[in-house]
Amino acid sequence: MTVQSETAVALRYTEDLPAPLVVAAGKGRLAEAIARIARETGVTLVQDADLAETLVRLDVNTIIPESLYEVIAEILAFVRRLRTET
User: Fold this and answer.
1) SS3 per residue for 49-76
2) Which of 13, 25, 30, 32 is packed most tightly, with the most Cβ within 10 A?
3) pTM (2 decimals)?
């Protein structure tokens, strides 16, 4: 999940998907709710203002565009490393 001040986007990726999927996105109170739920459920939060602003423009249930594969792959690898270190 990426979050920056008042913008939040939640992504889901499983091996059966061709690429990560936007499962929630919003600004303001909706962003706060997305971030709160993520924290409560143990989802790793990553702050990246530019990426959050790009992703929030996508519709929910949309696969991320190919142009974002590399940056999202880097984030997923980072999160995976964090989880294996703890």
Assistant:
1) HHHHHHHCCCCCCCECCHHHHHHHHHHH
2) 25
3) 0.84
